[in-house]
Structure formats: structure tokens, C-alpha cells
Design goal:
- By secondary structure, the chain is of the alpha/beta class.
- The chain has 3 domains: 2-25 and 41-171, 3-Layer(aba) Sandwich (Rossmann fold), CATH 3.40.50; 176-322, 3-Layer(aba) Sandwich (Rossmann fold), CATH 3.40.50; 331-431.
- The chain is 53% helix and 17% strand.
- The chain contains 15 helices and 12 strands.
- The strands form 2 sheets. Strands 6, 7, 8, 9, 10, 11 and 12 form a 7-stranded mixed beta sheet that branches. Strands 2-1-3-4-5 form a 5-stranded mixed beta sheet, with helices on both faces.
- Helix 1 crosses helix 4 (100-114) and helix 12 (325-334) runs antiparallel to helix 15.
- It starts with a helix and ends with a helix.
């Protein structure tokens, strides 16, 4: 029985859940520092951590849902480890992950019950395994010691280690590219919102247009950051409101940029639980990305985070990758399929290009045929023919001409429809 109690007692110690602990607070009020943007330090190399966790999880091929929690007295370093663990585990795309925030939110009274009934962990968290990670100091530096525990029996399946960065086990966050920064921001948002006990996949978020001025605005960095943030949050599992729908709500409220209160109003219109507000500011050779998460019901800031972006790289990416509806519209008007290619949809580009040009070619071919048929009808003569034969030829050519004219009109209508769909699709796709 002691073997089974050890990891469970550790779980209780890690989360400091007292016997009379109150239930976790609701999402709208859960935040340690609602107005301060934090920069979580880089703690462990993702590659080494991924290799260590992969080796550990090979010992439990039946694992389907894994709960994760980290033991460390350093709060900032613990958050860095938690984010890295969740990130590498999610990238495996094999197991469902119960994040540390969800563990902390749900364990409550179940933690006390676990002391008497090991299976309670599986019931409370819906997890078949628990991954416990603890920072341990050694002569060669700090390391992350991990062990995988089977929930039903509390039996240790296996252990693994991954070295931490720096002599003290942590380094500064440093400058990031927009992709990695967006993934970190998405994880920070998940930490804030999952503290209410609801998993990200059940939460609907809206990502407001990013506020930017000066070089950030001129370089289209705001649009790039908004697109990358929305993609990262969707990958993290959130239900992200479509950009076109959000823009329609902003138009309805006559808004260009949003304060926290206005963001909450827009979030209500689109049915979001929370709205993500971000701004990009110049800082010498870098851009500072500040992100706030605002609760739609209360208008309160639930949490904030910050990232430092490499200026040259971000501006270069924005120049190449940011697509505007007006540019997509212009290209699709000039050449069907070009707008879709500009938007990065090669399959749709081929479909609209072939379809529209094919309809146009058919229209031209039928029109030429109708013209030739009408010319032959006008040139009918009775040389070498009986009057009856000449009349029959004229009737046949006239009917043929009528059929070709009708077909030409139909093909022309189809061409117009295909052209219109091509233009509309390119414009709407660029909005998304």
C-alpha cells in the first residue's frame, strides 16, 4: 500500500491541496497577476526533452491520456518546464494530454480521496497515466527527473532524465521568431484559461486585430502576428472564431481597435468565452509582443504574457506571407486562379483556373461555330439543288445556328458564374 501512496502523496504535496481546500476559482477571476505581462524563461531544450519523453512513453504503448505535473519550488522555472512538457507531448499527436493547469483545477477533493483509493486519479482527471517531473540538482547541473505512473495501480512504469539549461537550470527567454513566440503565447493562454477546469478544446476564443504603429504597421507585422496567433491557438485546441466573423462584429460596433471593454463586447457578439488582445511595439532591433486575455463576461484581464520577436525575420516573413483581401481580389480579377495561388491554395487555383478558362474557351468555340453556321445559312443557294433541297438545307442550318447560339449563351453564363466565384473565393479566403 505504501508504494501506491508515494506518488499520490507527492501529488498532494506538489499542489499543496489541504484537506479543507476550497474549490478552484472560476475562469473569469483566475490569474496570479492579471495586468503584468510575464516572460517565462527557457528551461530545457525541446529536442532533448522530446527524446527523453519518447523513450519513457515507449514503456507504456497503451497510454492514451496522460496527466502532467511538475515539482519545483521556482515558480517561473516550473512554468517553463510545464510549457515545454506540454508542447513536446502534444507534438507527438499520440496521447491526449491533461495539462498541469487542468490537474491543479480538478484535483481538489479528489486528491484527498486518492490517499485511500488510487483509482480516484483516473476518475478525477480521466487519465490512465500520470507523468511526474521533478527538478533535481546534481554535480553536473540541474536535470529534470521524470517518472511515468499508471493511475489505476500507482505503479511506476519507468523513469527518464533531461538536462536543464544553464548552471542554475534556467536561461532568459531571448529573442524568438514569430512562430515559436506564437506557440508560447498559446500555451500561456491555455494556462490561464484551463485554471478554471475546462480544457482548451471546449473554449471558444476570438483573436482581435493586433495593434501596431510605425515600422510594425508599415511592415504588416500586425497582420502576420494575428494570423500566427490564431493558428497557434487553433493548434493548441481552442475553438478560434473566424477572422471574417470577428471583422463583421467589429464593423457592426464601428470599431477599428479595441480596449478591454470593447473587446469584451465584440467577444459577446461572436459567442467567445475570452478575447485575445495583442500589440506590437518597436524596441531597437526587436519587436515586443504584448498579449492580454480578457474575459468576455466581466471585461477583466485574466492574464498577460510577452514575447520578444526578431525584427528583421518578422518583417521579412510579413512581407512574404501576409495576404491582403484587396491584393487577392486584384489578382483574381486579372487572371482566374491567380488570387487563390496568392492565398496559398494551389488546388483551388487549379480548379478555378481550369474551370473558368475552360468555360471561356467553350464559349468562344460555340460562338465561332454559331457564326460559321449563320454565315452558311445566309449563303445557301440553289445551284445544282432542287428548290426543296435548298429549302431543307436552309432550315437545317437555321436550326443548327439557333442551337449553337443558345449553347453559346449558356456557356457565357457559366463563364460569368465561374469568374464571379473565382473572384469571391479569393477575396473571402484572404479575409480568413
Amino acid at each position: 500500500m505504501r508504494v501506491a501512496l508515494l506518488p499520490l502523496a507527492l501529488l498532494v504535496a506538489v499542489r499543496a491541496v489541504a484537506a479543507d481546500a476550497p474549490p478552484p476559482p472560476p475562469v473569469a477571476t483566475t490569474t496570479a497577476s492579471p495586468t503584468a505581462a510575464e516572460v517565462v524563461p527557457v528551461v530545457v531544450d525541446d529536442g532533448e526533452l522530446a527524446a527523453a519523453t519518447a523513450a519513457l512513453l515507449q514503456l507504456a504503448p497503451e497510454a492514451a491520456r496522460i496527466a502532467v505535473f511538475v515539482v519545483d519550488d521556482d515558480a517561473a522555472r516550473r512554468r517553463g518546464i510545464e510549457r515545454a512538457l506540454v508542447r513536446v507531448l502534444r507534438e507527438r499527436r499520440r496521447e491526449d494530454i491533461v495539462t498541469p493547469a487542468i490537474v491543479q483545477a480538478r484535483i481538489g477533493e479528489a486528491a484527498r480521496a486518492q490517499l485511500e483509493q488510487p483509482g480516484a486519479a483516473a476518475t478525477a482527471l480521466g487519465a490512465d497515466h500520470v507523468l511526474v517531473a521533478e527538478v533535481q540538482a546534481g554535480a553536473d547541473g540541474s536535470a529534470l527527473a521524470m517518472r511515468l505512473v499508471r493511475s489505476e495501480t500507482a505503479a511506476v512504469v519507468g523513469t527518464a532524465r533531461a538536462p536543464l539549461l544553464g548552471a542554475g537550470g534556467a536561461t532568459s527567454a531571448g529573442v524568438q521568431n514569430v512562430r515559436s513566440a506564437s506557440l508560447d503565447v498559446a500555451e500561456a493562454v491555455a494556462e490561464v484559461l484551463e485554471q478554471g477546469g475546462t480544457e482548451a478544446r471546449l473554449l471558444r476564443l476570438a483573436v482581435a486585430p493586433v495593434k501596431a504603429e510605425g515600422a510594425a504597421k508599415e511592415g504588416k507585422v500586425d497582420r502576420l502576428v494575428q494570423s500566427e496567433l490564431a493558428s497557434a491557438l487553433a493548434e493548441r485546441g481552442f475553438l478560434v472564431v473566424e477572422r471574417a466573423r470577428l471583422q463583421a462584429a467589429m464593423d457592426q460596433l464601428a470599431l477599428q481597435q479595441m480596449s478591454d471593454e470593447q473587446g469584451a463586447a465584440v467577444g459577446k457578439v461572436v459567442g467567445a468565452r475570452s478575447i485575445v488582445l495583442a500589440s506590437v511595439a518597436e524596441a531597437g532591433a526587436t519587436f515586443l509582443l504584448d498579449v492580454r486575455v480578457v474575459d468576455v463576461e466581466t471585461g477583466r484581464v485574466q492574464g498577460a504574457t510577452r514575447a520578444v520577436l526578431a525584427r528583421d525575420e518578422v518583417v521579412g516573413m510579413a512581407d512574404v506571407e501576409v495576404k491582403t483581401p484587396s491584393e487577392a481580389l486584384f489578382r483574381s480579377v486579372l487572371a482566374p486562379g491567380w488570387g487563390q495561388a496568392y492565398n496559398g491554395s494551389p488546388t483551388k487555383s487549379v480548379i478555378f483556373g481550369v474551370g473558368t478558362y475552360g468555360a471561356l474557351a467553350t464559349t468562344v468555340g460555340l460562338g465561332v461555330g454559331a457564326g460559321l453556321s449563320y454565315g452558311a445559312y445566309l449563303g445557301v443557294n440553289s445551284d445544282g439543288k432542287t428548290p426543296e433541297q435548298a429549302a431543307a438545307d436552309a432550315v437545317a442550318l437555321r436550326e443548327q445556328t439557333n442551337v449553337l447560339v443558345t449553347a453559346t449563351i449558356g456557356a457565357a453564363a457559366l463563364t460569368v458564374v465561374a469568374y464571379g466565384l473565382n473572384v469571391g473565393d479569393a477575396f473571402i479566403d484572404a479575409l480568413d
